[in-house]
Design a protein that fits this description.
heterotrimer, A alpha+beta (about 240), B mainly alpha (about 130), C mainly alpha (about 400), A: about 240 residues, Alpha-Beta Plaits, 9 helices, about 30% helix, globular, C: about 400 residues, mainly alpha
């Protein structure tokens, strides 16, 4: 090798130190990202799919024609599918839509089962995906109790109709899901779905900060989570 | 010796087969000229010293990958104090090296290196690319 | 000295069988190359049913592999001399079965070139990590044990003493491979069909019924087509083991039914209702599961009545019923039904596609090829020296 040992070590060291410093800052600064879905506001526009369209466009999520091969990071489901145990037939909640996405659980079963740590929990609470390491075993999909994850059964590129040149695609054979727009959070922008919602029904924020809008919303309004009895600690709150 | 014709013709055939790469390259007009990547017009100094990049750009990219994906850190400070965002498409290609066909592919094709990077990461032109 | 040479000499029928296996393997390889190129989308799998026959066959075959312990344990720990000539058949069957398991996992991977990531980034909190270790270890153990004991038998000497602790180790290891495989499923909070403490015992019971049943059939087959006979006693003793294991297995399944249906918990009973009566009009699995139940009942009658069990022909039919019933139960029903309904309550059905089925047949043929070659070696050794002494005295 022609590189001087000193330069090589300095370059590597600076890169890794930057990453470690960021981790330390997150741990000290204590971020805990979460999202609240205001179901009543969402219901005001019944046929709206702006959050889905925004997310899928920004992240180059393919539009697969065969339902079996569907890839989706966020979707709109009827209330009684998102909350199957709430069988109360008289409840007004049954008329509400529920946006379902990865819950970025506190205690994620998918992270527990992943044999390569391709899915892992970050310090700031985001359950992240490493698409370089994923072996496509789909164990995480079996483990997720919410149906949040999708697998690339085919090469997604032919099915990406409006590509975003600033974000990679994935390749066939890996699992993907919502990432809480971690690439946007780094530059101070909110997640794409939150930005796109015309009713401002999606509220994203830092639960570790007592004065954040999401903390205030959760303190003042009744809310539920999907299947909390499983002990997963989901961080998507549905304000009802 | 017996079967003289068979042996000599067999040996000749074997030698031709063995030297096939030479004939193939000669007929295809491949010369001893090395790969010629198109160097960036606007920047003269790379994110790291040239010698290091020539031998170890893969290591640098692996470190960037570790940092961005697993540690959430996107800021890179080079040895000469400049700041870059660690991003293959937006920084490496769009800011400096124009397109992968002009730069990356030149050496990779010459050295017959095929990388999975482009299965996911986008080119700056011809964004979704065509399957190789 | 090279035992493998024994597999290179054979009758016309032997070579035709080998050729047939290679043809099926070839078809499987062709389809797998297509799968590598296109992606797992050429299978019948879907976003809701993410594991199908590849993983189901793996689950079933881990059981067959573990069943070697049912001959090793009585012989080496309890001096059951009837199994002296059979243990090696069980060990070689384990080698073939574990190889098939690993191949089935491999063909199911979305990014098979990265499979070594499981070793490069060891993850002790993932059961899949432990599964790889236990399967790999079991393969090495059984291959070593079988090779050493067979070579000793061929030389006409007792096997080296150091093999004894290795054999003893293979006994708990056999139990562990199927327990770990059950743990893949029984710890997932979102899949109520699998979230049952009895899943691991159920797996072991069905393994110890289906594996020895296959072993009985293989012994009978070898007795017919070669000059090697195992006698009546080992087969009858194995039949008793199959009987007990099948009774226990059916009992465990009935326990599952009780908990699911008496509790009236919808999420527990839905997968069972899907399997036997259909859910939301989707009934694709029901004929299979009922066939499995009928075969299980028939096999129990044939096994429990001594007159039937003592008749070789009827016993063969009973073993066939056991194997087929448990193959449907574990190899088709359990894995697919675990995904029905989906976490959002949707029923998505699954059927393997043609390429998927051919790849599976290809993997089975690889296993059968390994089994054929290894059994041919045993047969050739035994035919050459029919009265060699017992290779290792137990105790």
């Amino acid at each position: 090798m022609k590189i001087s040992r000193h330069s090589f070590l300095r370059i590597s060291g600076i890169t890794l130190a930057a990453g470690a410093a960021r981790r330390l800052a997150a741990a000290i600064g204590g971020k805990k990202w979460a999202m609240a879905v205001d179901t009543a506001k969402c219901a005001r526009q019944p046929n709206c799919t702006k959050c889905i369209d925004a997310c899928h466009q920004v992240h180059n999520v393919p539009a697969m024609p065969d339902r079996r091969h569907e890839v989706r990071w966020i979707a709109k489901e009827p209330f009684d599918r998102a909350f199957r145990e709430e069988e109360d037939q008289y409840s007004p909640l049954r008329a509400l839509p529920a946006m379902v996405l990865c819950n970025h659980c506190d205690n994620p079963p998918c992270v527990r089962v992943c044999p390569t740590q391709a899915t892992f929990k970050r310090e700031d609470g985001i359950v992240a995906m490493d698409w370089h390491r994923c072996i496509g075993c789909r164990y995480c999909m079996a483990a997720c109790p919410y149906g949040s994850r999708s697998f690339n059964w085919l090469d997604p590129r032919p099915y990406i109709h409006n590509p975003n040149p600033d974000f990679p695609t994935r390749t066939k054979g890996v699992v993907e899901k919502c990432t809480f727009c971690s690439e946007r959070l780094g530059t101070g922008r909110p997640p794409a779905c939150v930005e796109a919602c015309p009713e401002k029904a999606l509220v994203f924020g830092n639960l570790a900060e007592p004065d954040s809008p999401i903390r205030k919303l959760l303190a003042s309004r009744t809310h539920i989570r999907r299947r909390p009895e499983l002990g997963t600690g989901p961080e998507i709150y549905y304000v009802i | 010796m017996r079967n003289r014709g068979l042996i000599w013709s067999g040996l000749a055939l074997f030698l031709i087969f063995l030297t096939l790469p030479v004939w193939h390259n000669l007929s295809a007009g491949v010369t001893a000229k090395g790969p010629q990547p198109v160097l960036p017009k606007t920047e003269k100094q790379c994110v790291a010293p040239l010698d290091f990049m020539k031998t170890s750009h893969m290591t640098l990219l692996m470190n960037w990958r570790e940092s961005v994906v697993r540690e959430g850190g996107r800021e890179y400070t080079s040895a000469d104090g400049r700041h870059y965002t660690m991003d293959l498409t937006v920084t490496c290609l769009r800011e400096c090296h124009t397109a992968k066909a002009d730069f990356c592919d030149r050496c990779h094709n010459y050295a017959a290196v095929s990388l999975p990077c482009w299965d996911c990461h986008l080119d700056s032109k011809n964004v979704l690319g065509s399957k190789p | 000295m090279f035992l493998v040479q024994k597999a290179l000499v054979g009758s016309r029928r032997y070579w035709l069988w080998i050729l047939f296996l290679f043809a099926v393997i070839g078809a499987g390889v062709f389809c797998y190359l297509r799968q590598l190129d296109t992606g797992l989308g050429i299978t019948g799998l879907s976003r809701d049913v993410t594991w199908g026959i590849y993983i189901a066959q793996f689950t079933f075959l881990v059981g067959v592999a573990a069943s070697a312990v049912m001959v090793v344990l009585p012989y080496y720990l309890h001096d059951c001399k009837a199994f002296a000539r059979i243990t090696i058949l069980g060990e070689f069957l384990a080698v073939a079965a574990v190889t098939m398991c690993m191949l089935f996992i491999f063909v199911d991977m979305g990014q098979p070139a990265r499979v070594l990531n499981v070793m490069l980034y060891p993850t002790p909190h993932s059961i899949m990590f432990w599964d790889m270790i236990s399967l790999g270890g079991y393969l090495v153990l059984n291959a070593l044990i079988a090779w050493i004991t067979l070579r000793a038998e061929r030389e006409g000497v007792a096997a080296p003493r150091w093999i004894k602790p290795v054999i003893i180790l293979s006994i708990p290891w056999a139990v562990s491979i199927h327990t770990v495989t059950a743990f893949l499923y029984s710890g997932l909070p979102g899949r109520p069909l699998w979230l049952s403490a009895i899943l691991a015992p159920r797996f072991l019971a069905s393994a110890f019924a289906s594996g020895p049943a296959l072993l009985i059939l293989l012994c009978m087959l070898l007795g017919r087509i070669t000059g090697v006979s195992f006698g009546r006693e080992p087969i009858q003793k194995l039949a008793v083991i199959v009987t007990y294991a099948m009774v226990i297995n059916v009992f465990f399944v009935l326990m599952e039914f009780f908990t699911a249906f008496y509790s009236h918990l919808p999420e527990h009973s839905e997968p069972f209702r899907y399997m036997f009566t259909g859910l939301d009009g989707h009934t694709r699995l029901a004929p299979w599961m009922w066939t499995s139940m009928v075969l299980a009942a028939v096999s129990l009658v044939l096994l429990l009545v001594p007159a039937f069990r003592h008749s070789e022909k009827v016993l063969a039919a009973a073993c066939g019923c056991v194997f087929l019933s448990l193959w449907i139960d574990k190899g088709i029903g359990l894995i697919v039904a675990g995904f029905v309904p989906s976490p959002l309550g949707v029923v998505t059905e699954y059927a393997p596609s043609v390429p998927e089925a051919l790849i599976s047949l290809g993997v089975w043929s690889v296993g059968l090829l390994i089994l054929t070659v290894l059994y041919k070696i045993i047969v050739s050794v035994r035919e050459a020296e029919p009265d060699s002494p017992h290779v290792l005295s137990p105790g």
